[in-house]
Amino acid sequence: MNAQAERRQRGGEVGVRALEAWTGLQEHCRAVEPLHLRQLFADDPKRGERLALEAAGLYLDYSKNRITDETLRLLLRLAEQRGLPARIEAMFRGEHINVSERRAVLHTALRAPKNERVVTDGTDVVPEVQAVLERMARFAEQVRSGQWLGHTGKRIRNVISIGIGGSDLGPVMAYEALRFYGERTMTFRFVSNVDGTDFIEATRDLAPDETLFIICSKTFKTLETLTNAHAARDWSLRTLRDERAVARHFVAVSTNAEGVAQFGIDTANMFEFWDWVGGRYSMDSAIGLSTMIAIGPQQFRDMLAGFHAMDQHFRTAPLAQNMPAIMGLLAVWNSNFLGASTVAVLPYEQYLKRFPAYLQQLTMESNGKHVTGGGERVDYDTGPIYWGEPGTNGQHSFYQLIHQGTRLIPCDFIGFCQTLNPLGPQHDLLIANVFAQSEALAFGKSEQEVKAEGTPDWLVPHRICEGNRPSNTILAERLTPATLGTLVALYEHSVFTQGVMWDIDSFDQWGVELGKQLAARTAPELESVAEPKLAHDSSTNALIRRYRRLKGTGAGARA
Ligand code: G6Q
To answer: pLDDT digit string (tens) for 256-297?
Structure first.
C-alpha cells in the first residue's frame, strides 16, 4: 500500500486538502452558496470598484464572482500555505520546477531585458536569448525588405509556418491577433494537421519560388510536422528542381540541430531555443519567427515588453494585488469549491478569434494532471475545461446554457476600449454587449421583473434568469503587440498559480507523449500491403480492418 492509500485508510486527507485554508474554504463555501450577487452588490455599493485590479495596462474586474472578503482572505491564505511566493521565485530563478522532466521553466527569460541575468544550471541564458532574437530580427528584415530572395531570384511573398501544438497554436493566434500590425503585402499561412487537406489548401494558390517554409518543432521528431515538412519539400522541389533551393526556401526552429541537419536544412538556417521553454510557452521564442516576419522586429520586441511587464507584476506584487494570482485563485475557488468544471473565454475582439484555442492548450495541457509533483494521485479536481468563441457570435448560440442551463460556467470577458477598425456605432455596440452579458449573468431576471413585464403566468418560469453566474471582465485600452503579450502572460501565470494550488507539475505533458507513440505503432498497420497481424483490442482491430477494406488494401477489398 502506498503512503497516500495508507493515509486515506487512517481517515486523513492528503496534501492540499489537509491544509487548514482548504478545509476553511470548504466550510466557508457553505456560507457563500446561498448568497446572491444581487445581495452582495446591494450590501456594498463600492464592490465593483473595490474588487478590481490594474496591472501592466490591464484592468481586471473580478467583483462579479461569488466571493466575499472572507473568501479572498482564505484564498490568499491558501496561496501562502501552498508557498506561492516561493514557487514564483523558484520559477523566475530557473530552478527545476518541471519535476517530471527535471527541467527549469524559463519562458520568462525569453522576454527579460538585455541587462537582466537569469541563471540556470550555471549559465546566464539572457545573452543566448538576445543573440537568437537578433538573428531572427536580421532574417525577418531581410525577408520583409525583399533582400532574402528565393532560389530563382524572386522575393519571398508567402510564409508558411509548419508545426503543431505548442509549435503552432501560439504563432497562429499571434498572427491573427496582430494582423492589424502585420505586413499586408505578404501572405502568412499555418499548417499543423497531418490531414493532407491542411497542406494542400494552404499551398494551392501559391508559387513555390516565392514561398518560405518555417519548420517549427522543438524535438524535430513530431510525426505530423515532419510529414508536412517532407510534403513541403516535395512541393517546392517539384517546381524548383534543385536541392540547393532548400537553403533559400526552408528554415527551421528547433532545439535539435542534428534532426534539422538530417532533414536537409542547413543549421545556418536554424533558429534555436532551449529545453527550458515548454512548447505551449514558446510563442515568444524563435517559434514566433512568423510573427516577427509579419509584424517586424520592433513590434515583436514591443510584444515581449508587454509579457515582461506582466512578469514583473507577478513577481513583485503582493498576492492581494497580484492579478494573475487572484485570477488563478478565483479559478480554483470556482472549480474546487463551487463545482464549475469549465471556463468560457469570451474575447469581444475579432482579432482574438484564435485566443480561446490557444488558451485551451495553455490551460488544459498544463493543468490536466492526475498526480501531484510527488507522484501521488490527487483526490480533488485539477484543471477545468477551457473553451470559447469571440463575442458577440457566441451570444446567439451557447450563451443560452450559460444563462439558464443547470451548470455553472464562469466566464472571462475580454474587451478593448478603443477599436482598431472604427466603423459607425459598431464598437460601442460590441462593448455594450460585454457589459450587458456580465450584468445579466450576475443579476439575472427575477420572477417579479418577468411578471412586471406582463408575461403570462405559464411563461414566467421559462423567462426567469436566476443570475448569480460568475464572471471576470478584462479591459484594456487597445489591442497592441504589447497588450497581447501582457494578456498571454496574465493567463500563463494564472495557470501557474492554479498548478501550485493543486500541487501538480504544470509543465510536463505525458498524455501528449502517449498519443505520439500510439499513432507511430498503428500507421504501418494501415499502410502495409500484406495483411498485418493485429494485436490491439477487438474494437481497434475491427476499425483497422474496416478502414483497410474500404480504402482498398484490406482482405476482401476487391471481393
Ligand atoms: C506543448 C506540447 C506539445 C508540443 C507539440 C509539438 O507544450 O509539448 O503541444 O508543442 O507536440 O512538439 P514539437 O515542437 O517537438 O514538434
So the answer is: 999 999 999 999 999 999 999 999 999 999 999 999 999 999
**SS3 state at 54:** strand
Distance CA 184, CA 541 (A): 50
**Ligand 1 midpoint to CA 549 (Å):** 33
How far is residue 417 from each of residues 64, 348, 394, 428, measured CA to CA in Å? 20, 11, 20, 9
Q: What is the pTM of this model?
A: 0.96
For residue 475, the cross-strand partners are: 59, 415
CA atoms of 97 and 91, how far apart (whole Å): 6
CA 314 – CA 489 distance, rounded (Å): 9
Contact 306, 486 (CB under 8 A): yes
Residue 164 Cβ < 6 Å to ligand 1:
yes
396 is catalytic: yes
Q: Which residue has the cell 405559464?
A: 458
The C-alpha atoms of residue 424 and residue 422 are separated, in whole angstroms, by 7
Length of the chain: 559
Structure-block grid coordinates of residue 434: 460585454
b/e burial code for range 89-101 (CB count within 10 A of at least 16 → b) = ebbbebeebbeeb
CA distance 345 to 378: 26
Is the CB of 219 inside a 6 Å radius of any atom of ligand 1? yes
| pLDDT tens digits along 121-140 | 999 999 999 999 999 999 99
Q: How many CB atoms lie within 10 A of CB 29?
A: 17
Is the confidence at residue 494, as pLDDT, over 60?
yes
CA–CA dist 493, 58 (Å, integer)? 14
Close Cβ partners of 481 (under 8 Å, ≥ 6 residues apart): 178, 181, 295, 299, 300, 302, 303, 306
CA–centroid distance, residue 114 to ligand 1 (Å): 27
pLDDT of residue 339: 97
b/e map of 202-236 (b: 16 or more CB within 10 Å)? bbeeeebbbbbbbbbbbebebebbbebbebbbebb
Q: 551 catalytic, yes or no?
A: no
Active-site hit among 96, 154, 451, 516: 516
Q: What b/e readout covers 445-455, taking b as 16+ CB neighbours within 10 angstroms?
A: beeeebeeeeb
